[in-house]
Design a protein that fits this description.
CATH class of the largest domain: Mainly Beta
Structural class: alpha+beta
CATH superfamily of the largest domain: NPCBM/NEW2 domain
CATH architecture of the largest domain: Sandwich
Helix content: 10-25%
Shape: globular
Order of helices and strands: HEEEEEEEEEEEEEEEEEEEEE
Number of domains: 2
Distance between the termini: 109 Å
Number of strands: 21
CATH topology of the largest domain: Jelly Rolls
Radius of gyration: 31 Å
Strand content: over 45%
Length: 279
Amino acid sequence: MPARFRRTSRAALAACTLLLTTALLSTVSASTASAAAADAAARAGQAVTLNAKSAEVVTGQKVKLKGIAKGAPKGKKIQMMTKVEGSFKPRGKATVYSGKGRFRFEADAGDPGVVQYKACLITKSGTKCSKPVKVTIVDVPGPRWFYLHDLGQVAPVAGNWCELSDTILGVVYPSSVGFGNICRDNRPDNFGEIDLAGKCTSFEAVIGLTDVSTPDARYAPYVMVDGATVFSQPSLAAGAAFPVQFDLTGKQRLRLGAPFVSGTFGRVVFGNARVWCDF
């Protein structure tokens, strides 16, 4: 090949290489800018909003909150916070239940006063929190429902009950008391009592074994009012539920019991057991 053609070919090759390199750098730069913009957009899209169902809640009831964590997938955990002694502390977690980032959270209303809540979405790129939401807890005088799991038991007594959320026949009872595995030892004398002081007029609950009980589990739950038995099942197994309601007018003592009879694993649940009282 003549020298002048070789010089021309090398020049053309150099020019092509320069053009390709410039194009490649431009593509990488655009891609990087695009990725940065997408990341910024994603972070901006993860704003968290929080609202209270009611700005005022009576003591003994539930504070109910709901919100949206934009960009959060279904199943994502949202950290709930409450303000304690001047700073926000973890209060539990909510779970995103829809593809739009929606979540719900419930908490027991404590002593009267103003409580601040906020929700935080924690991701690899940082943490986004909602603006604080204020809920006023008020103590309204007069009769109302009190859940047994919020009242003090007369102590000491046998196995006592434990406070829990549990399931009977697929229905969740979040404000329950119970006896048995995990909750308390399987004792033949498991029971707990509360002092009514003549200030209550009604008791109600749904009684049954938790759905995770084994088929061979047997218990003998009962309810007594001032020493008189008003409900009993000598050999209760899973698969049954008994809604009960009893008059407590003028009564002094309420006892719930659930002696263990036999079986591998079980727990008696007094679902959402509560009393109507004027304490």
